[in-house]
Structures are given as C-alpha cells and as structure tokens.
C-alpha cells in the first residue's frame, strides 16, 4: 500500500470514530459516600454522533474539588489539582514517550487525561470502567495477586520517573515535602488523633489484656510521634530517590481481571500528592494501607523482593545509566519506615475497612484539630482486634525499644 493511500485510510478511520456532536449529557456520582475524601467524582454519560454518522454512548470521569474545611486546607497548602494536572500533562506524557521509545508493551499505568478547567476546578479523565477496570472493594483489602501486580507497577513507575529525572525532565526540587511525613497539621489530624480514639476503643471493648497496651500508647506525646515520623522519612543524600506517586492506596488503583478473576492490568489514579523521596515511601504506604494484613505478614519478604526486581529490571529496560539500588538498600529503606507504616496502619486501617460511611468526617477533623470527627464505634467493631492487634503490639514494642 502506498504511503499516500495509507494516510487517507488513517484519516478516515480517525474521522469515523471522532465525536461530531453531543445529543444528550447527564452526570451522576461515580462513587458512593465514604469512598473518596477530598474530591467529588462524577460519571459523565454522553449520547453522541460520530464522524461516520452513527450514534454512540461515551463516558468520562469528572473530578471536582470539594468545598469544606479539609479540602480547602489541602487545596491551599498543596494545590492538589494543579499538582495533578502537571503530572498528567508533563510527567505521564513523557513516560508514555519513554514506553514508545523502548517498545514497552505492558501498557500505561494511568488513564487518559482529557481536560482541566481551573476556573471550575474540574479535571476530565478517561472512564477506566468503560475499558473493564475496577477498584478492589475498599472493605475487602487486596489479596496476594493484586499486591504482586501493584508492586510490579510501582517498580515500573519509579523506574520511568528516575529515567526522566536523569534526562532532566523531573527536578527533585520541583515537589513539596510529603505531607504525611512533614506537615504537623496533617500528622496531628490523620495520625495522632485517630490513635487517641483507638485507645478509647481499646479501653471500652477490647478486654483487660489490652489495658497495658492502651496505657503505653497513651503516654506517647504528639511531639514524640512527630519526631519519629519525620526522622523515619529523612533519608540521606546517598539514598536512591525518585518521584513518588504519594497516595497509592486501594481506592487510587484500578485493575482489569481475566475470566478467572485474576488481575492482569493496573492503572494508578489520583496524582495529587507527588513528592520526591525514597521509593520505599510509596511501597510502605501501599503495603500498610491496602492489602490484607495477614498477606503482608506472611509475604513481606517476597513482596519486597518482587518490587526490587521490577524496579531494577525496569531501570535497565529504559536505559538508566546511574547506579541501581541493591535489595539490601531497599530492605534497609523499608526497615527505616516500619514505624511510619505501623503507626499509619494501626491508627487508620479500621476507618478504611469498615462498612460504615460515617467512620470519619474530614471537615470536622480539620475544623477541630482532630478533637472530633472520628467515630469511636469503628474501633469497637467485631474483627478489629484480629485485624490490627498484631501490628499494634509491634508498635508498642517499637516504643519500648527506643
């Protein structure tokens, strides 16, 4: 076929599938209450006329910034939407070029970015559900198969970010410090405050054998917690660092499954809190926020090894010329972050996993500096001890050893 003929064929193909006119448009909430904390997620359904005259239905996701105490403070302090738009427009686009350059056929780790309206504070994105992707139910933490795919994906993402940094396309100084490691307001409201409610729940319904643990945790001051968390993420200049996703937990991942229900592809969503640090930060945040704690306890070593293999093989695949972290380097980074992960898990996991939609009220939490907004009943529910008890004992041991 001649080049000129092929050009005509391609143009006609593109024109046939192009949206020519919108006939109808409707929007509805894409997520039930309690599934998203700082944005309103809408599903936009369009009935359209295509370039070939046929009528089709197209769906998109609209992400709108929430009003309210928490959303306003997050927006003012971290410009969440602006940060996410920069990631989509700059970083992810360059990652796509990188994949094309090196013939990476595993597929992107993100959805297509359509439009951003700063005036209306709205981001329009591809509807991944239309392509067969879904989240794992928030109240059923991820299993081993999902964890393996997620960690392989983190390795690919971190490697591409490091190559872009090496090419001068990512600046380590271009991102704000990670709010969960450095911001006193967020650490107080989202780490210290919920543990105080957990302590009340332990004393109310966990039984006498947990009194000693409640007493020891109640002696931990906010200043001590703040120092421990900041120190845990303060890696030296010799550490392998890269751009982190920043919020890679269950609700910010979507999976496509095969006919047996096994995950075969994954996409990250919500790039609002990118930061530059050890990639172990993303890995720790994910492992302690999203997967079944029994799966984590039984498979931690092999999961970290899988992540390291994905990171280093991806660095090699994309032509990275710098030194790669050893497995020992990654293990040391993970060990350094055990305190951060364990505290994060024990104080918040019950709120994430509960079926209740009133587990936490972010606006009230930020309005009262964490004095109100957490539902005590969540920490008294059946199964909470089995879920977080082992890690809670480990947390107390970490304080005893310090």
UniProtKB/TrEMBL annotation:
Pfam families: EcKL. Residues 123-317 form the CHK kinase-like domain. InterPro entries: CHK_kinase-like (IPR015897), EcKL (IPR004119), Kinase-like_dom_sf (IPR011009). Coiled coil: none annotated. This is CHK kinase-like domain-containing protein.
